[in-house]
Amino acid sequence: MGLRTGDEYRKGLNDDRRVFYRGRQVDDVVGEPELAMAVDHSAICFDIAADRPDLAVADVDGEEVSAFYVAPKSADDLVRRGALIEEVSRRGGGTIVLKEVGSDAMFALLRATEGEGLENAREFYRRVCRDDLALAVAQTDVKGDRSLAPRQQADPDLYLHIVDEDTDSITVRGAKCHTSFSANADELIVLPTRAMGPDDADYAVSFAIPIDTPGLNLYVSPYAAGDRNSFEFPISSKHKLLESLTVFDDVRVPKDRVFLNRRSELAGPLALAFVDYHRFTAINYKLPLLDIMVGAASLIADANGISKAGHVKGKLTELITWSETVRGLAQLSAVRSRPGEHGVQQPDPLAVNMAKYHFAHGFHNAVAILTDLSGGLLATGPGGEDWDNPEIRAVLEKYYAAAVPAEKRLKLLNFIADLTARDYGGYQSVLATHAEGSLEAEKLQISRSFDPTRARSYVSGLAAIDAL
Amino acid sequence: MGLRTGDEYRKGLNDDRRVFYRGRQVDDVVGEPELAMAVDHSAICFDIAADRPDLAVADVDGEEVSAFYVAPKSADDLVRRGALIEEVSRRGGGTIVLKEVGSDAMFALLRATEGEGLENAREFYRRVCRDDLALAVAQTDVKGDRSLAPRQQADPDLYLHIVDEDTDSITVRGAKCHTSFSANADELIVLPTRAMGPDDADYAVSFAIPIDTPGLNLYVSPYAAGDRNSFEFPISSKHKLLESLTVFDDVRVPKDRVFLNRRSELAGPLALAFVDYHRFTAINYKLPLLDIMVGAASLIADANGISKAGHVKGKLTELITWSETVRGLAQLSAVRSRPGEHGVQQPDPLAVNMAKYHFAHGFHNAVAILTDLSGGLLATGPGGEDWDNPEIRAVLEKYYAAAVPAEKRLKLLNFIADLTARDYGGYQSVLATHAEGSLEAEKLQISRSFDPTRARSYVSGLAAIDAL
Amino acid sequence: MGLRTGDEYRKGLNDDRRVFYRGRQVDDVVGEPELAMAVDHSAICFDIAADRPDLAVADVDGEEVSAFYVAPKSADDLVRRGALIEEVSRRGGGTIVLKEVGSDAMFALLRATEGEGLENAREFYRRVCRDDLALAVAQTDVKGDRSLAPRQQADPDLYLHIVDEDTDSITVRGAKCHTSFSANADELIVLPTRAMGPDDADYAVSFAIPIDTPGLNLYVSPYAAGDRNSFEFPISSKHKLLESLTVFDDVRVPKDRVFLNRRSELAGPLALAFVDYHRFTAINYKLPLLDIMVGAASLIADANGISKAGHVKGKLTELITWSETVRGLAQLSAVRSRPGEHGVQQPDPLAVNMAKYHFAHGFHNAVAILTDLSGGLLATGPGGEDWDNPEIRAVLEKYYAAAVPAEKRLKLLNFIADLTARDYGGYQSVLATHAEGSLEAEKLQISRSFDPTRARSYVSGLAAIDAL
Amino acid sequence: MGLRTGDEYRKGLNDDRRVFYRGRQVDDVVGEPELAMAVDHSAICFDIAADRPDLAVADVDGEEVSAFYVAPKSADDLVRRGALIEEVSRRGGGTIVLKEVGSDAMFALLRATEGEGLENAREFYRRVCRDDLALAVAQTDVKGDRSLAPRQQADPDLYLHIVDEDTDSITVRGAKCHTSFSANADELIVLPTRAMGPDDADYAVSFAIPIDTPGLNLYVSPYAAGDRNSFEFPISSKHKLLESLTVFDDVRVPKDRVFLNRRSELAGPLALAFVDYHRFTAINYKLPLLDIMVGAASLIADANGISKAGHVKGKLTELITWSETVRGLAQLSAVRSRPGEHGVQQPDPLAVNMAKYHFAHGFHNAVAILTDLSGGLLATGPGGEDWDNPEIRAVLEKYYAAAVPAEKRLKLLNFIADLTARDYGGYQSVLATHAEGSLEAEKLQISRSFDPTRARSYVSGLAAIDAL
User: Fold this and answer.
1) Which CATH topology does B6-269 take?
2) From CA B440, how far away is CA B69, in angstroms rounded?
3) C135-138 and C187-190 strand pairing
4) Taking CB atoms and an 8 Å cut-off, how many pairs form between chains A and B?
5) What are the pLDDT digits (tens) for A314-329?
């Protein structure tokens, strides 16, 4: 079939999917302006194939395949993948676009499943490549009481689980949350969220289904909904992600689409394998966002005429160090990568998680610095309707001039406000903290990925003690 | 005349003021729903007189006066003032209400002006007390290029200045920004923004005028504009401040309303005297906001079922220490206060500015902690329209139950999102950084308020050196 | 008997005490130069009675009593106590002197014991006041495996416990560590270290004994031992504390000296009551140390000629804010104090522990700042023997001159090195982290001392939910 | 001549050098026990040639040359150099050994000098390689008043300068400080410390001379002097560096040993070129020190039985992240290296300086964590003389047992105390802050090494403004 264009992708979304948005069911996601913005955003990962085939198109056995879907076999493959992820994020205003997440899930399936599940995963993978499908991934369960295992929850459906099985299919019930792209993807890959014991075998399930599969209902969050003019909302009037509460109301899944069927011992490894790739994706798609924060800080300091102040220089250097540390560790995670199971290359988990740690732990401080350098006008400045009124604009032009004309300064301030001080900024802040793993999850992976033997035995030797 | 009710205050706003909002002139601020919300918010400081006269009403020479307007003469007066400011902020959702700022300015005028200006200030003060007026304060100039003095700016109007004077009046031109409450106050006090030299004498000006004075034009910021339902926006659907770009288009001011007329040597002291009171106000009105952050963190940790985790306890303690350090230093700033000029009590500037420093430097970290404890649903949760649809609500109730029913959890999450992750949260973040003085301004005042003699001479003695 | 002089205190130390230091038993602590320095340091708290009777001497029922030993009955009493503790610390180079700790223990005994134990405590208290005794306090057990309760330890002696009892006495065995002043006190008060259950009743023991009681052996730490000249070690050549491993080798204690005898339910309250006073002592005796750090930073910045640099100003302000926050919260802990059991005033535990938290969490950063401002000469500068050689001194005077003559600069640098970069500095750093409670202990007390009800119910109201 | 052994190196130090230590001139540095320890430490970089020729010996044009002295031509060369530096530091207890610094200087000279200076540098380089010489580097001038240029100082000698010149030689006067290894090297390379203007041409001077050159006087710092037993000082009883005040008392330098003679425009580039290599050295030789801190923390947590506590895990992860971030950026600085002038490879300055920044800014926090996990025994524990007394040792063995026997625990604690809480720890702390560039110097280089164009133009595009 070959690679699809953005428009072909858009057309493919017109089916019987059940998407709910702002309290009602949506007929056609492409026809609903707020959702269409998200579709346009995701179309970037299709359109780039025409625009930058060197980066976005790969030749696999003589066929053109989206470069997103090339399972990495080497450090160089990961370097190229990182560059592609960074480039689409750059076009997407500093955010993930779509194909990243589905390919992360496919690589995990190719590495961490076994037997029939692995065969199904490989077949699914071939089909996705061939048809250039858009995939969403549902991993995070709604979880209920976090101190209890899946089967111990008051309501057994709080983790997705198998409620029935016959020769040809399994039937699943439950809900996943924070599912990005579900409303504007072609298919949905479901992954387990954590390690599970034998008693939780019903919850150890992974599969893929078309979005319009009966029983699948998507409740899309209205976060950052509403009309937004490009003066006040230069980023969020153009870029948007859709996240859903994804409800499986006794959804029947054919067995040849099942990758994990009650093999609880594989649930944890599969969940972690996805994390390997998805955090690698994260630290690469965040790079343009880091550039945005550094660039915006540098520009607004100039616009406000404060670039020469010692404290301003210090704050800019702090931002640069933060940003470039993440970039450096992201690069390193590819350089240090190693072959994983079934020959799929694994980014270095220590470097990946440290990059993510620095990004996430430093994000709010970076926002604080940007806020500090920008000034109070972030929250007391004029709006698009003011700017559109010529008489008011004349006043604004006179009084908001600084080291640059008022228009540039106000546009920069609105850009920064959109990014740090309004709902889209809040969205980014929540993503920085929780998306692709929480702060504690990253810390846990750092601890697990680090082998203390070298350090401990060195100290034991110097301190003249045997190993403890 | 006696103390006014909230409704009397509302009626008083119906005059010829020129208020611009979202691109057009507003006929009646009370009649415009979005502005009326701000009026209602400010009315709290009138309505409290009936509700809590012990706290809000004072007897001055046999007359009932708003307790806000009692010039403090003792540490106890400041303790009482702090309690009143905290209480109206508590009613106002954790934000300043209105009368605080005008009284701060009046105390500054009573302390830092001299001669005829002081007489005018005292007469104005008597009138404000008698008529229970609502005052806004315009201090921050638009400033233009920050490395240049007022008279050096390309456009001489970038700092407010005197352009004409006759026997009875002065005429001023320029603009102030970040002017809170201007659109819903009765009068406007104008203060200089910084110390000035003799060459900038035209810029050393302070006065008070009714809001509907000809030539005064208010361009109100549309920040956090728009309809908002109480499910998604539990705070910001009820509370709002208005900030304006305040333009003085050759405004004529009668001389008996002028408090500072070209006496540049008084500009700095007057600006700083206002800061003394206004930061004292700040650290007291922020106390309910601090309680909000601590209380919300404590509740959401319970709701998510994670209160027992070691890292969660540690984060809660971090929040408590931050919040209670500010509260402790706020209390101390009154306890350590001392008589200022003309017998007006001055809060201890070291304690005031350290309280502000801790608040402002810790705010973004507190937001990060709240975000961390709340989880990703802050940004991917359902909206009011979803909740209002009974079929969708049933799904939400099933799947968002945790250690508490879904309704409580979602309400808490929306409360926290309103506070930290949407436009109102951004507004609070900008205020934390810039309102009542920037981070650098507080650091400067800490440095100025601290006498290093004790520490330096102690060290000189111990190190056996004479003073450097 | 009346108050004793420093010399009378010194004479009282000549008894049969068994003190071990640097591998051998010491005959006479006053005759051993390194130990005598510690005796001189502690003598400050006796000599101040003659020098500053206004501060250090109280009239109790017509008798002169050391003001250290006045059990506080009011906030003012605590303010005065704070001032006394600060003053002796100032004379002691920024460190605790001696009488603070014994009086802390006595106040705890007067508040938290009951029945016969309380009677014994009161009688003991009267004798201490009358004879102006020097008291050490042994609280911290050696503890062994920290995850086990006292009775569960492999060796039952790892917590001090009662091994025998007859009509007139109990016999105890075990060891306490970190016991300050034991080698140069008259008597030793023993307190339990933590809450205990009924099964650990043998470990719930408190009493007081003379230091020369048979079976009591003190193993004094050699930390910071050795000759030290005053050029390189301006503080630590004059001031020193002694800490011991305090071993109770079947020590018999007469019953009238026992304050707690197996009443396990009182062990925790008694331990915490001591903590109340001892951390109050801590935050007051640290104030001169804070002044030292601020003063030294200010002076060395001048001496190096870098005071005008923006980053230097910022670092000085950071130090000031740290230091004065501790000072402010220390003051507040007295202002907010309240009556405890049996009428003994209790400092506000929230303010006390927050002051300690800020001190301890900020200490290493303060050291980093001082190190940064001082320069590498801290570790590569000349020594006392160099300075004493006239030919070498001439070279040093020529080449180490900066914005001040070389002598002043080098003395300041050595002062700072003694404080931050040599063994005495390390001692201060360990004390900052562990003395009077670890970082985690302070966090626990902050959490326990804070009542979240106000904050939680305020948020519940605003978020329109009932209490969770 | 071939590579020398450690003993050959020792013999070479017996000459007429004028070394002053602790107030008197030293006849023979190898015969003076405290200095001999430093010689032994530096001998590591000779002895490794026999032990690990794969790492430490290179074949250059058929001759064996110390691998330290191989001028890097590729990223791989720098990776190898990093590994060698790390290995000798590992043998040296976590500290630089000797040959690193001289080779850093030679690479700088080969890159940043020109004309006759470059020819002399190349000739000098050949001789150093051939004779396997030990080189010290004197760069930092004593500087005097830091706000003044070299020629503006009250005493013109505060920066090293040329006072005379004839056909064959120049004569220099002044002093350098913080000169490591000078007392135990064969020769001394002198480099300028900063950029200079034409008016400071006399100060733009670089050359190399034998240590026993007439007029060269070394005043070695007594830091961490004195006998130290291996029980209390397991690291610092074995490893030591010597730093000197290095005085040039009209030293005559033959012209063929002069690399920079008044060409002020080359002073800055030469100083910075040295910094490129020397900070690369720094971040590699610090790696074992980082391992020490991580390993010691991990071991002491086990020994104290607290490894399972949540806050302990969190602190260990914080240490790991700090340590491995430095390691990662160190690796990256080689991976990203590029050819410099004259074909000498240049490590990536952004990665180098960020690694140094993370190391230096995190060091004091790491010390705080180690102190926290170790407990107060760091400062109140027993000494070597106690341990050597069998009766006392029996007491210590009984009472200091924890989750491991007392001996292991005490050895670990002393190891950590030596590293963090005694004079050697202070030395490391000062080095962390100042050696190879101060905190501000690293920040400046980060700022200079970062090209903001990408970030700024990206933001300009998104915000729809032209470049400012």
Assistant:
1) Butyryl-CoA Dehydrogenase, subunit A; domain 2 (2.40.110)
2) 30
3) parallel
4) 251
5) 999 999 999 999 999 9
